[in-house]
Amino acid sequence: MKDFELGGRIPGGDCGCGCNSNETKDAGCGSPSIELSDFRKTRKILNVDLIVIDLSTCKRCVPTGDQLREAVRLMNPVAEALGIELRHKETVVQTPNEAKEQALVSSPTIRLNGRDIAQDIRESQCESCGDLTDNDTSVDCREWHYRGKVYSAAPIALLIEALMEAMLKIDQIPPVVPTPLKELPENLRRYFDNKKQTQNIGCCS
Predict the structure, then answer these.
(1) Comparing C-alpha atoms, which of 171, 66, 50 is closest to residue 117?
(2) Which helix (H) or strand (E) segment is 15 a member of?
(3) Strand pairing class (140-146; 122-125)
(4) Beta bridge partners of 88
(5) Residue 18 to residue 45: CA distance in whole angstroms
(6) Residues with Cβ < 8 Å from 110, sequence gap 6 or more?
(7) Partners of 92 in the β-ladder
(8) What is the rounded distance in angstroms from the CA atom of residue 100 to the CA atom of residue 116?
(9) Can you name the residues that pair with 149 across neighbouring β-strands?
């Protein structure tokens, strides 16, 4: 087996494309060369956003964030091959106004180019988020339904499938910005009304 190098001449003479030329591919043989710089210029963007009310205590938001980071890491080589850049961002909303601006209706939320990956929102009580309130307020967080099972954190298989589907349909899902909310859902309003003021949770990455 011979080792070949892009842009170089194959040992022994011709360029290897079948044109029988002694020229290198960069010098202009019978087949067009691939300009990697041009490929990168046409790269498409897939925004991968995680929006949550907490990323330090919540037993649903934290593992979902971990799973999403791992899914993005695993899918980066695939995205690179498809000419797509995955732009991953995490946002922790700390006030009602921030939640409205982010159009957050359930935590955690994952969006691809501004679209929630789980349109059918289902929630159940999250005791760890209740601990973030002054009086152990009942707080519901999102649960994930996937292949007939219910998960407290987004399973990595679901995330990989969502990323893959979005990349394959990248031309059909241009980036959109969700319309800010006029009012928060009752569950989030209850959380922010009773949230401990001593909480100082970092935001964004």
Answers:
(1) 50
(2) none
(3) antiparallel
(4) 48
(5) 36
(6) 48, 49, 50, 51, 64, 68, 116, 117, 118, 154, 159, 162
(7) 52
(8) 15
(9) 146
- Tokens of residue 10, six digits: 């194959």
Helix, strand or coil for residue 56? coil
pLDDT in tens, the chain (205 residues): 434 343 344 344 445 555 555 544 444 455 445 455 555 568 899 999 999 999 999 999 999 999 999 999 999 999 999 999 999 999 999 999 999 999 999 999 999 999 999 988 999 999 999 999 988 899 999 999 999 999 999 999 999 999 999 999 999 999 999 999 999 999 999 999 999 886 444 444 4
The domain limits of the chain are 43-174+187-194
Angle between helices 61-81 and 156-168 (to 10 degrees): 40
**Residue (of 144, 150, 149) closest to 120 by Cα position:** 144
| Size of the chain, expressed as the number of residues it contains | 205
Q: Hey, what are 42's tokens? A: 């046409």
What CATH number does the domain located at 43-174+187-194 have? 3.40.30
